[in-house]
Amino acid sequence: MAISPSPPPSSAPFLVQPFPPPPQPQGTTRFVLISDTHGHPPPASLMPEGDVLIHAGDLGRWGRQDVLDGAIGWLEALPYPVKLVIAGNHDSLLDPSLPAYHAPPASSVSKNRSRLLGPSARKANIHYLEYTSFTFRARPSGREWTVWGSPGSPAYGSPAFQYTSQQAEGVYASLPPGVDILLTHSPPLGPTPLDQTSRGVHAGCKVLARKVRELEVGPWLHVFGHIHEGWG
């Protein structure tokens, strides 16, 4: 999914360029990438055609159930044959490990997780990843892809799925060595501007950056979100 080279106006937060995308070459797999929709997903008419939708987290906003319900409904209705989804630091309604003073009711978290992990999600081609892997074919005769997804990000601000520097090694311990697609809410630490805040701070994860460098094979694609100013 190509992004507009200049920041879009607030009234049009999702722009695809070019739109529609060029015809897909025969025998290829087209990935559509999006993140941090925060309850404002683009209308289906602005979503490019493709084989695999990847959402890199922050479906919701500040623990609002109506926002998360709308985001899941939007995902369910999209026509992609494969939809790979992770949570992010705003998705407290999906995080069962939050301390009591931050946590929503356990029954609410359980209901939301069941909706993304249960039969209705599978029927809608949704595969929710939480420090887990998934292997799939986008087309019956196509190649096999393995994706690993993590909702985690370094501790700062909204608390869901966040980890301290001491916990970072454990968070990425299950990252498989031969993953084709790496899907993380947090970006790795620099040196690109994709983890850079408006204050010029590189807010990506140092441990994640090292883990990616240490992979003997892959990833062919690393998709992340979290730092809004670093979109692209």
UniProtKB/TrEMBL annotation:
Residues 1-11 have a biased composition (Pro residues). Residues 1-45 are annotated as: Disordered. InterPro entries: Calcineurin-like_PHP (IPR004843), Metallo-depent_PP-like (IPR029052), UPF0046_metallophosphoest (IPR051693). CDD domains: MPP_239FB (cd07379). Gene3D superfamilies: 3.60.21.10. Residues 30-229 form the Calcineurin-like phosphoesterase domain. This is Metallo-dependent phosphatase. The lineage of its organism: Eukaryota, Fungi, Dikarya, Basidiomycota, Agaricomycotina.
